[in-house]
Amino acid sequence: MTNSALLVMDIQRGIVGRFPENVTADYLTRVGTAIDAARATGTPVVHVVIGFRAGHPEVSTRNKAFGAVAGSAAFVEGDASADIHPALTPQPGDVVVTKKRVSAFAGSDLDMVLRGAGATHLVLAGIATSGVVLSTLRQAADLDFGLTVLSDGCLDGDAEVHRVLTEKVFPRQADVVTVDEWVKAGAERQAG
């Protein structure tokens, strides 16, 4: 798995808080399992977060996704909404990349970090399936990365959209597996 990197995207307090606690508790446990497995196999863990400067100078009012946060403290460094959820706190050796738009590559140095690590294959987990995961998958495919999506390592506010993406759309450009399947495959590669 050393040519892979696990991208854990937008799992921040301000985003996780939009979902019921009974949903997020199991979800965070699953993503934590994927992170632990990545670390155990030497796979780089990259936490990707959305973040802006105070006053949101990067955000145009024409941007439907982010225009509503302009002028607030949302997702500004130092505001609790921008913090990575404490259940998935980065550890020494993890990398944190800040992006400015939906895709993990938009307005970030993610491509440089991945190339520096020698990563040619990305494993994607994050919130939301229809947001950061979809946008990052599309851009990563165009950049010729191999891709795996952890279907239950992704979360979306619309269960049907999540299902269609993970069952019908993502398989065109990525392998789609569960966290348990990915962990088991990594353990078998380590033992083999």
UniProtKB/TrEMBL annotation:
GO terms for molecular function: hydrolase activity. The keyword Hydrolase applies. Residues 4-181 form the Isochorismatase-like domain. It comes from the Bacteria. Keywords: Hydrolase. Pfam families: Isochorismatase (PF00857). InterPro entries: Isochorismatase, Isochorismatase-like_dom, Isochorismatase-like_hydrls, Isochorismatase-like_sf. The keyword Hydrolase applies. This is Hydrolase.
